[in-house]
Amino acid sequence: MNAPHTGEPLTLGELRASGHRHKTVKAELRDNLLARLGAGADRFPGIVGFDDTVLPQVERALLAGHDLVLLGERGQGKTRLIRTIVQLLDEFTPVITGCEINDHPYAPVCVRCQRLVAEKGEQTPVTWKPRDERFAEKLATPDVSVGDLIGDVDPIKVAEGRILGDPETVHYGLVPRTNRGIVAINELPDLAERIQVALLNVLEERDIQVRGYTLRLPLDVLLVASANPEDYTNRGRIITPLKDRFGAEVRTHYPLSLDDELHLIRQEAVVGWGAEAVSAALPDHLVEVVARFARHVRESPAVDQRSGVSARFAVAAAETVAASAVRRAALAGEDVAVARIADLPAIVPAIQGKVEFESSEEGREAEVLDHLLRRATADTFRARLGGVDLGALVARFDDGSIVETGELVPATELLAAIGPIDGLAKILAALGIDDVDSPGLAAAGVEFALEGLYLLRRLSKEAVDDRVVYGSR
Fold first, then answer.
1. Rounded Cα gap, residues 247 and 402, in angstroms
2. Is residue 191 domain-shared with residue 103, that is, in the same domain?
3. Is 121 part of any domain?
4. Is residue 3 part of a domain?
5. Blockwise average pLDDT, block size 10, the chain, 473 residues
6. Are strands 170-172 and 181-186 parallel, antiparallel or unpaired?
7. How many domains would you assign to the chain?
8. pTM here?
9. Of 4, 97, 203, 442, which cross-links 127 as Cys (Cβ 3.0–4.6 Å)?
10. What is the extent of the structural domain holding 346?
């Protein structure tokens, strides 16, 4: 039984009569993962670029019943991956009503529930807990205490009249409160070493100790942690006994292919027509420029490779480009906002703080990013329009004519300035733009072609106030 239904068991007796079987959380994850593997279903929805590398390792760890630690630089999707594991839990699971640590009705472990089952027997009340409430996440910071994670004496319970030695005076921490679920600890090396010691029993003996109590609670949890490999030497480290108790260590990475980078940006960027989205059209060739830009920054010797360049870098860049298009549409009175090459310069000041540069590049940060952005644009131009005849567009400038564009120049003004061009439909088709009648999309394609021709030194380009002027060389 994976979920409640009409007439669901609400007592221990009804639960037994229903044929429900008690499984540990790791057995539950294993069975559900095997079912999805057998059905060919998506096991980790929303995770991009890990199919052949990271995910098989995670699956093997779950099938082996291992607690695991994910190691990787910032922005590699470690937290997102951890959260998707929750979907492998049963949709609902029975717990004894009112239990602080989610005791299963068949096997209560806390004093309160053991007493309740002894008193009420088959009439012990049962509640069904959804999978989302069986997951707890803690960001490790130096101020986290043992009480936060494991528990401590509750002075209020003592004041109510219980004796200090009574186990029921304990206020349970995050880990026992997530009994029969998944506990995630992000940035584990930031946890003080003396606090990490408190997790040793959880991972090996599967129980907890609170101060001097003779308290043994056999916990049923999957512990998943994340860490940046550099944190072993920078901010802190995972103590050796704790590392030894994790059954599996999985290394994550940034997207290995351009397609994965593109997929990730499209999936994560808040661009579209939703209530919270930046309402702008973001043509595919501009998304590709942003993706190539992120990869060039990631590979640049000017950037501190130990810090990495987060996937959030590319997502924020795409959202900034879209926002620039929305701003132009509002100021110029355009009905539909469509991003263009003129919106790309807005990226650099917006995302410069997301990149850690080598000390030798101090003062040149914006210059480095500008260069890499131009390089990404040129690479995209070659990939998209390298085989397209642009002679008619270049010939448009043979008589010395110029074309003005810029961040605030509306699409209709740009198209009027460029005039009719033979082969425009082929240019737009090569860029994946099918709606030739849309002024915004047509202008986006034309402006990209002009910028590419300038980067290949077939046209000149000059910045005049807030406008850009293209002309013959």
1. 66
2. yes
3. yes
4. no
5. 63 93 96 96 93 96 96 91 96 94 93 92 94 94 87 68 63 91 93 89 80 74 89 66 93 94 91 62 94 95 87 93 94 92 95 90 92 97 94 90 93 92 90 84 95 94 89 86
6. unpaired
7. 2
8. 0.87
9. 97
10. 258-471
